[in-house]
Amino acid sequence: MPSPFTPRTARDRTIVALDLPTPRAASDLVDRLGDAVSFYKVGMQLVFAGGLPLVQELVGRGKQVFLDMKLLDIDNTVAGGVNSIAGLGATFTTIHAYPKAMRAAVEARPAGSVGLLAVTVLTSMSDSDLRDVGYSAPAAELVARRAEDALAAGMDGIVCSGEEAAVVRKIVGPDMMIVTPGIRPAGGAAGDQRRVMTPAAAISAGADYLVVGRPITAAADPVAAANAIVAEIEQAL
Known about the structure:
By secondary structure, the chain is α/β, with parallel strands linked by helices. The protein has a single domain, classed as Aldolase class I (TIM Barrel, Alpha-Beta Barrel). It has 11 helices and 8 strands. Helix 7 runs parallel beside helix 8.
């Protein structure tokens, strides 16, 4: 059956990463973006700067929130973390795609609460980076294997780069969500990302949601940048 997390509009598919130093800076950007954006990612930088109350503030303002915590610990700790996150009203949170951690998260998650996304391979990592930390498989193979594990564990979605989205879609079928970071408009700087893709290409490859940070947050006109990405998504759809 279709996922309850299926996006309704092109604007719903754009998740702006609030990778900013303070909750005030993040809140000011949300105010500036207004109705141009309906979905935000809150990650470790903002959480460790006191940003957890911002999650509830955004939910109270009718926004969706992706609380990107990349949980990985012993089963009991992962379970407790998921329960706490569910109480914040976030739409999504992330678990590193290790089978035991994913199963613990799925079993602990209160029914009808936060969606669980499996982090496969960070988009900042190349095949060479993976070899440096002991993985013999290239990124595409490792992502596919972890997507299979996430499907078996009952996760709600996968986080992978656009380069792997088409293969992941074949593995997980039509109902699991695919969330794609490393989105860069054509001609945009890749920064510290390695496996990047344009918005239109990622949607065409099978992504449901696109996580966009600096191309919007560092733009001279963030509203125009967000609207341009939404328009590109609409065209790709």
